[in-house]
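Justification of resources, computational component.

The compute hours requested in this renewal are based largely on the per-chain cost of generating structure records like the one below. Each record pairs the submitted sequence with a full structure-token output. That output is archived, and it is also reused by downstream analysis tasks.
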Amino acid sequence: MNLRPTQPALIAGALLCATTSFAAVQVVSERNELTTDFHFKHVPPPARNDAAAAAEFTIVEGRRDGNGGDLRVLHDGKLPRSEDEPGENFFFASGSAGGKVRVDLGRAIEIKQVNTFSWHGGDRGPQVYTLSASNTGKDDWKQVAQVDTRPKSGSAGGQYGVSITDSTGSLGRYRYLLFDIACTEKKDPFGNTFFSEIDVVEAGGPAPEPVPLPASHVEIVEVEGGRYRLAVDTTETPDLTEWTRSELAPVLREWYPRIIQLLASEGYEAPRNVQIVFSADMKGVAATGGTRVSCAAKWYRQNLQGEGKGSIVHELVHVVQQYGLSRRNPKATPTPGWVTEGIADFVRWFLYEPQSHGAELGKNALAKARYDASYRTTANFLNWVTTKYDPQLVTHLNAAARAGTYTEAFWQQRTGHAVQELADAWKAALAKGN
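The structure output for this chain reads:
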């Protein structure tokens, strides 16, 4: 039987759904781009009492990524709380082409359904695998279905659910299943799917009990009529919910599209779905990974009327920057960290809250200031060069960084001066009060 994978099609809302029939076998796949509850319209929710719960999972080809969970996370009846929790997902090693996982159910059973679930904000979200079944686990493997949930275009991030069934009510009587898992892309080493759960439902077996989901509180902030959706998660910090709703949400609606416009570049589409999560035990202030902004609740509680909103504007710049895309270009040059952080603080201190004068340099600070000191100091330098030489400087600097083409020659090309010459003139002008 020739089984052809299909690509999911975009339907209403943020849901991707595809149904594929192979003779009597049907493969239904769905995608939710912004959710935390693994709820799908046609794919059953993850179960905690299915036949795979007590099964033996074994890697028969490939190796797991040491940053991820072991095989137990695939059938432990637990789910990740966010899109980027490596330890709560199983995935094959970065840079590898995938691998094979065998499931020993302990006895031959009539299999009603095989359901698989995954979650990630990028290319590790979709599922690409071939499912085979056997009674001996040796030479009698029979191909059951092929799965490929990669979207044809746009972001690949989200929660994916796949359900494999048969119109007869049984996929067959088998003891062993084999998942031959492929990576979703090869443009960089990060294409191995974050698998969260694998369920095997026995025909005539006990009714599936859905995995209990942790209580959550997520506010969806829609921007530009729903074109962009920012999910603000205060599950661990309910005391911050009102502040995020009344104070932060208006800032997100206004400034996310403004940042996108400022940091536009040819052929680039900014992330449409963003998570902002307030963590009860996180140290520091905030950090951004991909499209997820993590915020330390302790610091924010002390800065709700001070730097709180501005710090999140800074992190939204990182969400839009996406300089990791340059890894796809083998000739790319790494962007210096001072450029990345300097742009973010430029947007924050000179565009979002210039009235705070948060990036001004006093005489003592100016004496030791370096243009590449990052954060506020670099933001001050960028503002001076922008004002004196090129109003579009930050837009062009961002484009070079995202493409992986930034070098010091950029400054000569845009202003007619080397970066150190600009730095000397900047310090001299500030010393004179200009």
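The chain has two domains: 9-202, 218-431. The longest helix spans residues 241-262.
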